[in-house]
Amino acid sequence: SQQGEEDPQALSIQEGENATMNCSYKTSINNLQWYRQNSGRGLVHLILIRSNEREKHSGRLRVTLDTSKKSSSLLITASRAADTASYFCATDERQGGKLIFGQGTELSVKP
Amino acid sequence: DTGVSQDPRHKITKRGQNVTFRCDPISEHNRLYWYRQTLGQGPEFLTYFQNEAQLEKSRLLSDRFSAERPKGSFSTLEIQRTEQGDSAMYLCASSYRTGGYEQYFGPGTRLTVT
Question: Which end of chain B is more exposed for a tag (fewer CB within 10 A), N or C?
Answer without folding.
Answer: N
